[in-house]
Amino acid sequence: MKLTVLGSGSTGNAVLLVANGTRVLVDAGLSSRETARRMALMGEDFWPYGLESNRHTLETFVRYMYEQGLIPKPMTIETLFPDSTQRTFRV
User: Which parts of the chain sit beneath pLDDT 50?
Assistant: First the structure.
């Protein structure tokens, strides 16, 4: 199951739930136009799971740490995560 919070606050709330090909939008106050705008902006997988889905971001993060002197040498992403955590899990 994937859960994407499209809005939460005094102006309105909306959550998109996706599970097994079924999509459910729980809306409490956002206009249809605003909901559509936020869904187009965030997509269905705004916070992707897994090493491969986040590889570019993680490699950039490691490069910045090296360039800023926070780590002594560049390292691969695989060295940061044990094998058991490199598989993708979904809630």
Answer: 91
Query: Rounded to an integer, what distance in angstroms lies between the CA atom of residue 80 and that of residue 6?
Result: 31
Residue 53 is classified by DSSP as G
Query: Do 6 and 46 form a contact (C-beta atoms < 8 A)?
Result: no
Give the β-pairing of 22-28 and 2-7: unpaired
Measured at the alpha carbon of residue 76, what is the angle toward residues 80 and 72, in degrees to the nearest 5? 85
pLDDT digits (tens, 9 = 90+) for 25-41: 787 777 888 878 878 88
Token representation of residue 76: 């691969």
**Per-residue model confidence (pLDDT) at position 64:** 95
State both tokens at 44: 């269905």
How far apart, in whole angstroms, are the C-alpha atoms of residue 84 and residue 64?
A: 26
Q: What is the DSSP letter of 26?
A: E
The residues spanned by each domain of the chain are 2-42, 52-85
